[in-house]
Design brief:
Helix content is 27%, strand content 5%. It is mainly alpha-helical. A hairpin with a 2-residue loop joins strand 1 and strand 2.
Length: 342
């Protein structure tokens, strides 16, 4: 080895420990853990493919908080709000633009659940009325009938409503707060950040029990336990997207004609007290104003489902017969002559 090569080799041996120590100090200072800027920065650098609708082209941090320009996960997620539409956050997130609608929703029965809560608690002896689910007393070891009923409400009965994302079934999992009605889920996952008008899919993610919604589509829950399924199949149990098994019957005549839940139940999610009656359509006479129902318009001299709406596919003529006449209201009771509620 000549003298020049020997000097270079000696210099490298001398500098190697110093370089390692410098790299360690830089890493401790956070200077070397920042990845190179080779792709999109901010939230979309990790969360690629997020699509917003035209009315909500906002910065992610506008709703979700966090530090959008950070490239280190821990720093970017400082102050992050995972579910800004949840009742605990919707006033600050959604309400910053939609204050009136959020305030109305907070007073609606979908959020207060006052009818369900006070009816059930009343059956167990409660005398005082509660304003909402957060007022239900919480006891560590419930022992009285009233405390057990309150515990049941918290653990089971309120899981399908806007404070919870629902149970882990493909058609039941939904958003919370505003997102329960205005976001779309499929197979238990959020499909997009597009905010939309509610369709029956959103309604049925909660209202899938007998006499509250699913029977409007002809589905009626079995009244026996799973071990008595008929017919028995070696292939195993049928799919249970709602967590229940049901009979497939004829849909309600109004559903066959193209009406969806919010045509009659309108702004019930925003505190509407409008009373919808059957006579609004069935006693209508030419020359009168159009019925005050969403999705219904006067066409060819009669109230008909508004087939121009993109949320109807298909839309049947109001007096066509898609099958044998099966006229049923989804509750079996004259519910449309009463105020709309849960």
């Amino acid at each position: 080895m000549n003298r020049g090569a020997f000097l270079i080799f000696t210099l490298l041996l001398t500098l190697t420990p110093w370089c390692a120590q410098a790299a360690t100090v830089a890493a401790q200072d956070g200077a070397s853990v920042r990845p190179p800027a080779t792709g999109p920065s901010g939230c979309v650098g990790c969360h690629a493919g997020i699509r917003l609708d035209a009315a909500h082209t906002l910065a992610c941090s506008r709703c979700h908080g966090g530090q959008e320009q950070e490239t280190i996960q821990e720093a970017a997620h400082t102050g992050l709000i995972a579910k800004p539409a949840h009742p605990d956050h919707m006033a600050a997130a959604c309400g910053s633009c939609h204050g009136k609608q959020v305030a109305e929703a907070a007073r609606s029965q979908h959020f207060t659940l006052s009818g369900m809560i006070n009816t059930i608690r009343g059956h167990f002896g409660a005398r005082e009325r509660l304003a909402g689910p957060k007022d239900i007393p919480e006891v560590d070891a419930p022992s009285t009938p009233q405390a057990l009923a309150d515990d049941m409400l918290r653990r089971r009965c309120l899981r399908c409503h806007v404070y919870s994302a629902g149970d882990a079934y493909s058609a039941v999992t939904h958003g919370t707060g505003c997102g329960a009605c205005h976001l779309s889920f499929q197979d238990g996952k959020l499909t997009a950040h597009d905010f939309l008008k509610p369709t029956d899919t959103q309604c049925l993610s909660c209202h899938y029990g007998n006499s509250v919604g699913s029977d409007y589509h002809g589905r009626y829950e079995h009244d026996y336990h799973g071990e008595y399924r008929t017919p028995f199949t070696a292939a195993g149990a049928p799919a249970r997207p709602y967590g229940v098994e049901y009979h497939d019957l004829a849909p309600d005549i109004h559903q066959q004609r193209g009406l969806i839940c919010i045509d009659c139940h309108g702004d019930s999610g925003h505190g509407s007290t409008t009373v919808i009656q059957c006579a609004a359509c069935h006693d209508w006479r030419p020359g009168q104003p159009a019925p005050a129902l969403k999705g219904v318009a006067v066409q060819n001299g009669a109230p008909r489902p508004d087939c121009k709406s993109k949320r109807r596919n298909p839309c049947h003529p109001p007096h066509a017969r898609p099958g044998p006449p099966q006229v049923r209201q989804h509750s079996g009771l004259p519910s449309l002559s009463r105020p709309v509620g849960l």
